[in-house]
Amino acid sequence: MIQSVERAAAILAVLGSGTPRLGVTEIADRLGLAKPTVFGLLRTLVKHDLVAQDPVSGKYSLGAGVLQLGNAYLDGSELRARSLLRAESLAQRANEAVWVATLSGTRVIVLHHVFRPDNTVQILEVGAAIPWHACAPGHAIAAYLPAEQTAALLSGERTPLTGRTKTTRAALGQALAQVRRRGYAIENQEATVGDAGIAAPIFSREGTVAGAVGVVGPVERLLGRGAEDDLARAVTESARAISRDLGAGRGGAVLSALR
Amino acid sequence: MIQSVERAAAILAVLGSGTPRLGVTEIADRLGLAKPTVFGLLRTLVKHDLVAQDPVSGKYSLGAGVLQLGNAYLDGSELRARSLLRAESLAQRANEAVWVATLSGTRVIVLHHVFRPDNTVQILEVGAAIPWHACAPGHAIAAYLPAEQTAALLSGERTPLTGRTKTTRAALGQALAQVRRRGYAIENQEATVGDAGIAAPIFSREGTVAGAVGVVGPVERLLGRGAEDDLARAVTESARAISRDLGAGRGGAVLSALR
DNA sequence: GAGCGTGTTCGACATTACCGAAAGGGTCCC
DNA sequence: GGGACCCTTTCGGTAATGTCGAACACGCTC
Predict the structure, then answer these.
(1) Of all nucleotides in the shown strands, which has a C1' nearest the CA of A60?
(2) CB–CB of B217/B183 below 8 Å?
(3) Can you tell me which residue has its alpha carbon closest to the C1' of nucleotide D11?
(4) pLDDT in tens, B38-78
């Protein structure tokens, strides 16, 4: 583990979380490093455009280079590429917004977002990072991870996002067990008040979870009287179709799904 | 300039440009480094989720972390935040797709993209990186940069994207001079065959160029009989309005514009 | 105008990461 | 099925490398 790079990554993470503009001293304090150390790292990051410095205040923020990289990541994402079409048709069929997401650390990252097909103004959430425990895609993925990874997720710290967010190990373990029984995950206002989600896991060629696909929207439309079952069916079918496109043999996927 | 971080950044750049999946040896060759060196750097980057390793092929690609960072960059971008509304109204007024962009190195990065308000299917280009010399926003920005930065841009290497891309120093210098005279830039199929663009510079509080705003679309709609002048007016007015929102005093902006 | 708080520079120390060589693991071809 | 290749990965010595304390320069507040 090469130290300076670790520290550089830590700086990027600090700049990326919450407060967008930070000074050298603030960063140094948060990371427990000496000022000159942080300064040197920042200089290098600035040179490569991963960090930008406000010329007047001297404070630092993320640079445009990270956006470029993010875009390159999307371009190269096989999961995203393979799911574009099926996400589109799921959005049409369900008449709801659709997310394709993958797990990164303890957060779920939105790789693709199809707007609800009704011309209302909606904001784009590609790149958004949501705590795994507070969203349907997160549950769908966590439920089918190798046992030790699931355990690692369950053992971490969690903060609630709404009054309904499940954070205890017991509640989440139970939720995941239910996901495994049903084959899909339901989230009811655990990330945003008023919004619900239904998601199902996507499996890769090797039979491991690669991500999840699902619908998001107002709770009264998604979970009201019976709509739930139809949506769940549409979502799981999409997930299976994408898994197939990714090359997941029935064998691997089914094995994981039934463990 | 701290070496390992530079190399790590170089690895990210290599993974981000073109070929999405690369092996250790390939990366080492491209950067002229020893294999174990690259391996160590990669391990660290993988740990921080900036790079991902395909478990079956062993090859490396960008990780989901960079997408998360890219999103954080957008969230923190003052230029983007301040231009959202005016970009929207420009799109309505011009009835064309609108870009807000900024310069990163020699490329122009799309920070915000408003679709043409006509319900046709369009792809999102936020995060896209376009060579500065091949697009209207690039010209608009380059024309108002401090002299030495303009010179640096002009002295670099350029490759044509279409048959109409200007690449010589003379042609570009002339184009920039014209931008300075007019106050806006026009690009005619230099990036994509069939597409044109009109863009004007946005100035920051300090009177320096912060980015550009402009319209993009089919050449026959943008540059046909007189449409050009109306669009140019709408674009420059938007650019001025955004500059004002950013806090650019008339003094600074005008000074730069008239230098 | 003094005092504090920044971001920044300098230079010595020893930690740190680099690289050559060689070992595991996989796949393809014969 | 054996062999040869290519790939990623491990090891350990070396010296280059980054780290950190102390001091500098600048702007802001009081």
Answers:
(1) C7
(2) no
(3) B36
(4) 898 998 998 899 999 887 778 899 999 999 999 999 988 98
